[in-house]
Every structure is written in C-alpha cells, then in structure tokens.
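SAMPLE LOG
Freezer: B-3
Tube label: C17
Construct: single chain, 128 aa
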Amino acid sequence: PDRFAFDTSRTAVVIIDMQHDFLEPGGFGAALGNDVAPLQAIVPSVQRLLALARDEGMAVIHTRESHRPDLADCPQAKRDHGSPGLRIGDPGPMGRILIRGEPGNQIIDTLAPLAGEWIIDKPGKGMF
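STRUCTURE (predicted):
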C-alpha cells in the first residue's frame, strides 16, 4: 500500500503458470470440474503489469508447470494423483496433460512471452 523505489534494471516480473490448461474453458482445469472464470478475471491485471514491465525494460520470467514427455521428472505419487484419464501425461482436451510442447501447456496468447523473455518449465507448482 505504500510507495517504494526499486531499480528496474535489477528487478524482474515473474508470471506463474498462465497456461491454457489452467485458465481456459475446455482445458484440464475445467475437465476436473473447476470453474475457470474466476481465474480468467486476473488476466487483464497481469496484461497491464506485463506491459508496464516491458515498457520499463524489466526482465520478464514466465513459468509453466510441465513435465517431460517421458514423465521422467514426475514422481509416481504425483502421476497417480487424480482420476484415471485425467492424470499428468494422459490425453486431455488440449493434448497430453501438463506435458511440455502440448497446446494446453502453452502460455495463453494474451500473455505470450516475447523473444528474449525467460520461460522456465518446472515439474511443480508455484515459482520454485
């Protein structure tokens, strides 16, 4: 709530897991029975933040929760979680669920990374 100063050349904006499968109707989240409409409500705010960061020349880092196609980076307990047919690696409404390179695993078009922005694929939730 207070103003503060920071050096934009030493600051990054991190945008976490804004993927088709999580945010869009017809994606993995919706297939699980989740109402994704409340999640979509944050997108305009993230767009404004992203535009500001780009205008100020700040580093932008995008993350995607994702796994290798062979699932070598997915612990068995995580793979076994959920209903059969809706588990990591299963065919989903937008390609294999949470698999790198699949359409549902990509960042939504309105927040798509630009050339030079970092994209970190990680096999877990959150930033780290």
